């Protein structure tokens, strides 16, 4: 199953919608506030009503509003700042890469948990265990540790 992409038919000579889709479909936004700013700026009311879900904003926003925002240089600067921060996050050598990657090429660590609290817009956790597991995943990402979360997600709860 592939994620839904927001592809309204709008004029976008700057490629801003593509950048927004990349940001929206990467969990990096969930613990990096700079990645959330463009979506909050698109429609603050919708941003709050969809529990701060970037993909929720992109799929629900009026195409005319989106097109007007994309034409706004200040909004494009917000998107550019977020894209630059994300790029820097992924391109900067992490602690793990600098310390252990040469000794453990191709290593992956599986973290099994029944729930992961990654972000409020991805509600698939019930309490403390999920919050702890989500924090472990986010911290491992920041350190560059090759950790993969494996859990269960039921369609009907």
List the SSEs and their pairings:
Blueprint: H1 16-24, H2 33-42, H3 44-49, H4 54-60, H5 63-71, H6 73-91, H7 95-99, E1 109-112, H8 128-143, E2 147-150
Parallel strand pairs: 1-2
Order of helices and strands: HHHHHHHEHE
Computed Rg: 17 Å
Overall pLDDT level:
90
| Spatial gap, N to C terminus | 18 Å
Overall helicity: 40-55%
Number of helices: 8
Strand order of the largest sheet: 1-2
Q: Classify the secondary structure makeup into a structural class.
A: mainly alpha
Poorly predicted ranges (pLDDT <50, ≥5 residues)?
A: none
What portion of the residues fall into strands of 2 or more residues? 5-15%
Q: What is the molecular shape?
A: globular
Tally of separate domains? 2
Number of strands: 2
Task: Explain what this protein looks like in three dimensions.
The chain has 157 residues and is mainly α. Helices cover 52% and strands 5% of the residues. It is built from 8 helices and 2 strands; from the N terminus they run αααααααβαβ. It has a two-stranded parallel sheet. Helix 2 packs antiparallel against helix 6. The protein starts with 15 loop residues before the first helix and ends in a 7-residue tail after the last strand. The relative contact order is 0.14.
């Amino acid at each position: 199953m592939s994620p839904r992409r927001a592809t309204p038919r709008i004029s976008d000579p700057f490629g801003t919608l593509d950048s927004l889709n990349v940001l929206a479909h990467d969990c990096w936004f969930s613990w990096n506030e700079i990645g959330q700013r463009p979506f909050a700026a698109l429609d603050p009311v919708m941003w709050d009503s969809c529990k701060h879900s970037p993909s929720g904003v992109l799929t629900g926003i009026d195409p005319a509003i989106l097109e007007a925002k994309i034409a706004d240089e200040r909004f494009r600067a917000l998107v550019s700042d977020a894209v630059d921060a994300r790029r820097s996050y992924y391109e900067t050598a992490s602690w793990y890469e600098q310390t252990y990657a040469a000794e453990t090429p191709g290593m992956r660590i599986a973290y099994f948990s029944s729930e992961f609290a990654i972000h409020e817009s991805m509600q698939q956790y019930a309490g403390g265990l999920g919050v702890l597991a989500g924090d472990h995943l986010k911290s491992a990402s920041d350190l560059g540790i090759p950790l993969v979360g494996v859990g269960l997600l039921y369609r009907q709860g």
